[in-house]
Amino acid sequence: MEKTENLKDILSKNLRENRRKCGFSQEQLAEKAGISTQYLAMIEIARKFPTSEVLERLARAMGIKVYELFLIDYSPREALERLEQSIIANIEQVVRKTIQDTLANGCEGKEKV
Predict the structure, then answer these.
(1) What pLDDT score does 1 carry?
(2) CATH fold for domain 7-70
(3) Coil, strand or helix at 110
(4) Per-residue pLDDT averaged across 30-43, rounded?
(5) How does pLDDT run across 12-22, given as a tens digit for each residue?
(6) Staple partner for 68: which of 42, 61, 64, 111, CB 3.0–4.6 Å?
(7) Mean pLDDT for the chain overall
């Protein structure tokens, strides 16, 4: 249900989407950022990860902030699924801790009749 993307995949997807939104070909963006087209292509297929300097040049060439290359935009359904998983994990953690605390206290919590 939950797909975990690594940083290279997130960058790859966002770089490609932002480049297309700007109407740039790979060649045009590579030229504006001062890198080779082949290197840009490798970044876009998540085979290479650029230095912070290259990230800054790519972002500047597209008129965006560097952090925007790492944003994850979830669909409403994905956001709800993630929220559900988070809530389930939190409930499980609370129940587990409560059981552990109860077992650790043994019979001390029993009322005397």
Answers:
(1) 36
(2) 434 Repressor (Amino-terminal Domain) (1.10.260)
(3) coil
(4) 97
(5) 999 999 999 99
(6) 64
(7) 88
**Exposed/middle/buried for residue 43 (C-beta within 10 Å: 0-12, 13-18, 19+):** buried
pLDDT at 2: 41
Q: Which residues contact 62 (CB under 8 A, 6 or more apart)?
A: 18, 19, 21, 22, 24, 29
Question: Which single residue is written with the structure tokens 């970044």?
Answer: 43
Contact at 8 Å (CB) between 49 and 92? no
Q: Would you state the torsion angle of the CA atoms of residues 42, 46, 47, 51, taken in this order, to the nearest 10 degrees?
A: 80
Closest by CA to 72, choosing from 27, 7, 22, is 7
Domains of the chain, by residue range, sit at: 7-70, 76-107
